[in-house]
Amino acid sequence: xxxxxxxxxxxxxxxxxxxxxxxxxxxxxxxxxxxxxxxxxxxxxxxxxxxxxxxxxxxxxxxxxxxxxxxxxxxxxxxxxxxxxxxxxxxxxxxxxxxxxxxxxxxxxxxxxxxxxxxxxxxxxxxxxxxxxxxxxxxxxxxxxxxxxxxxxxxxxxxxxxxxxxxxxxxxxxxxxxxxxxxxxxxxxxxxxxxxxxxxxxxxxxxxxxxxxxxxxxxxxxxxxxxxxxxxxxxxxxxxxxxxxxxxxxxxxxxxxxxxxxxxxxxxxxxxxxxxxxxxxxxxxxxxxxxxxxxxxxxxxxxxxxxxxxxxxxxxxxxxxxxxxxxxxxxxxxxxxxxxxxxxxxx
Length: 347
Known about the structure:
Rossmann fold; 2 domains
């Protein structure tokens, strides 16, 4: 192997080791990981966006692990999990006697993360009254513990995450605009599982192996009808929902066969392989819905191909095979599924 080839292979091994908990190779996920690599080697604030259950904490950890701070602390806090009257103390700490019940000194998360990375999950749930103090800690890299007038200096890199639309919250006066702009330095969006369906098979195999080891069960067979149902299911709870359902299925497995843990409505999304017409109809409906959601665009970062986890050429070929074309112009023959003008025309 030449030196350049070896270098590329080493870099690929390093990349895979840093993303070892992030399973999948769909185009949508690859674009995200490229952005993660790009920003991780800086000290810039990162805002991780995405629906609940998409794995935003894994992305935050990857940013830290790829950064020059990887050997330093990675400290996390879920802003929605701490009562408002305790959140300030959790973030900044307090001195003994600072308030009723403060029987000793407490070190806050900002101080714990000094020289490392602080991950604030669900930052959209941060109370308005506390946001100015967060902004100051980010901009000035300093704060005071509750009950203490001494200013403490820190060196913290912030990664924040939310499933909420902070821009809309700012417009509704539910989130401070200055803090939003400070957080929104480098936003990255974790795609929902329905936009990376090519990763579902690999995720299923991964979680089956993980839970099989934990429970001492050996799963030898996953019926294709079950796997097809997984791929077709809309996954409103994203990867977290898939993980939990696979755990349930492994618990209920007998004879080395993985049962279908989906609710009855999910099982009916894809019928047995013998009913090819129903499977085709579902695929057509999924593509039509995705293309419309993408405003008729096939390519590009927000196009239908990216949302489905496919290459543009693959999606166009699949659409032609399924007979999905844009509306016919006057004088053209009728037929095919009607769609926007941006969809390939029948040739």
